[in-house]
Design brief:
Elements: H1 2-46, E1 49-58, H2 60-67, H3 73-80, E2 83-89, E3 99-106, E4 109-117, E5 120-124, H4 127-133, H5 138-145, H6 152-155, E6 160-163, H7 178-196, E7 199-203, E8 206-215, H8 216-230, E9 247-255, E10 258-265, E11 277-284, E12 296-297, H9 301-304
Parallel strand pairs: 6-12
Antiparallel strand pairs: 1-2, 1-11, 2-3, 3-4, 4-5, 5-6, 7-8, 8-9, 9-10, 10-11
Length: 321
Amino acid sequence: MRVQRHMAGVIAGVTTLTVLGGCAAQQLQALEPKIELRNAAQQLAEAKQSGFTLKLTGKPADLVAAVGEPDDAEAVGQLFNSSITMAADKGGDGEADDKSSIAINVDGVAGTEIRFVDGSLYLKAPVKELAAKFGAGPADIKELSGGASEFDALISGQWVSIDTKQLPGAGATAKPDAEQKKILAEVTASATNLLEGAEVVRDSADDKHLIVTSSTAKGYAEAKRLVTAVEPSLASELPADPKKDQPVVVDLWLDNGKFTAAEVDVLQFVEGAQGRVAARLEFTGGAPITAPTGATKIDLSGLLGSGGASMPYLKDLRPGN
């Protein structure tokens, strides 16, 4: 009898541990994707070098059917055939040697690139090829440059350099990438805020794929916070709060604790839309960003005058725009 009682106690103890262990395993299984996601976000924030490419995937016809008109088909097709790649290089431990770059593929025409290195903006672009694609001729190119010979190198597709302090509105800013850093910090904060209240599960068919589900109400609230923090003047131009709260899904892919891709199906925000059109980020490990050799220096002081009225489009090259 005594042995039986001991055996019963052992069985009861094992059963209790099994039940508790199962509950703990379920909780850990639910928490594990979020932990992996947070670790990957932390790794990305601390990386010395990072980069990503933004593009659209899916069928252009689905986007036109959802939000456009038949006449928009050509422009939408060009958008699907374009991409933008952004990269950052923190250099050392301080901020003084931070560098960044932007490379743009415009409807299949690659070669446009901007680099911010040591207080200078470096720019090159296949100007003639881009002009031909969009129907511009030599006269249009001459008007764009203001007829200044200093822009001959740029028009020929070569690297040019500009002191960022000479750009309209730059003033005496000591750190020309300060606006970019602010935007990055606010975007990171928004992503963290959305993650806190979101459901994160692992795709049973792909263990590298995490599915994050939030809601339109949370997404709108965070978008409003982000816009207000980055550019308060635009906050009043945001559309009204969504009348109907519904799930919003973001797809993330990770490998060895690092982000490899992220997608948001933009058609999920359009009621009755068919198909899938995703804004896709493809992450890279990044690389050192250096000043290109042989760049032709352009002195804007004599070209822009006091306010840059003769070439107002140059303000768009200011860091943060």
